[in-house]
User: Which sequence fits this backbone?
């Protein structure tokens, strides 16, 4: 069972999310949550556990909300949204339950970064937004030497309206799991946001970055099933 800082994110949060999915798929009666109904921005992640030892879990769905939500309602709601409405995947079905792992991330410590590099791999998640590159001020000549990625200069557009903008996020664990440095993470987030053209230093410098931290916990299906039986729930 993965567990960090249990005073904030606990297995009970994961059990509640798992219970919402199990009951939605089976029409069983959910068990009322007993943990405090605090408010946090949150993400619910479903992973399929590997059938062979030594292999990594496979992402099955992950969606969240950056607005603080009451945990009783928010965890149950996003357990189903991430299971059924993550457009990267088919809807989770009942036969998959025994191979699932549920992870909860409660987001904390939001701060505006001074540049796209103003965050720490393994500590911060990032939320980036940037305008369509056609709206940038006159770009650096592609043939000239690229500016240092440590440069503090910016080329954020000043037009009052933008025809198009992009945004994406990565939770704190993504970069270390993928073995990415800061630039690789930001470039991947730019792609995730939907930009398919060439990624230039001007595009990177146009990024507005908001960093955050998360408190995580995860449980497996077998751990959830034991919890549900202990609390009088039918399987």
Assistant:
């Amino acid at each position: 069972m993965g567990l960090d800082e249990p005073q904030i994110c606990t297995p009970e949060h994961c059990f509640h999310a798992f219970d919402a999915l199990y009951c939605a798929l089976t029409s069983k009666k959910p068990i009322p949550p007993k943990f405090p109904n605090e408010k946090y921005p949150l993400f619910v992640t479903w992973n399929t556990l590997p059938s062979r030892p030594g292999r990594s879990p496979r992402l099955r769905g992950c969606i969240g909300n950056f607005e603080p939500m009451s945990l009783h309602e928010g965890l149950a709601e996003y357990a189903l949204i991430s299971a059924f409405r993550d457009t990267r995947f088919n809807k989770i079905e009942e036969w998959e339950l025994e191979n699932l792992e549920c992870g909860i991330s409660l987001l904390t410590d939001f701060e505006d970064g001074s540049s796209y590099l103003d965050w720490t791999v393994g500590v911060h998640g990032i939320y980036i937004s940037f305008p369509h590159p056609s709206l940038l001020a006159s770009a650096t000549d592609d043939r000239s030497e690229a500016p240092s990625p440590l440069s503090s200069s910016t080329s954020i557009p000043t037009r009052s309206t933008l025809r198009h903008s992009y945004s994406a996020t990565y939770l704190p664990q993504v970069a270390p799991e993928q073995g990415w440095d800061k630039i690789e993470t930001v470039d991947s987030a730019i792609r995730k946001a939907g930009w398919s053209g060439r990624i230039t230093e001007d595009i990177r410098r146009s990024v507005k970055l908001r960093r955050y931290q998360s408190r995580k916990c995860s449980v497996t299906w077998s751990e959830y099933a034991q919890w549900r039986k202990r609390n009088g729930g039918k399987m």
Summary: Residues 179 and 185 are 9 Å apart (CA to CA). The longest helix spans residues 11-26.
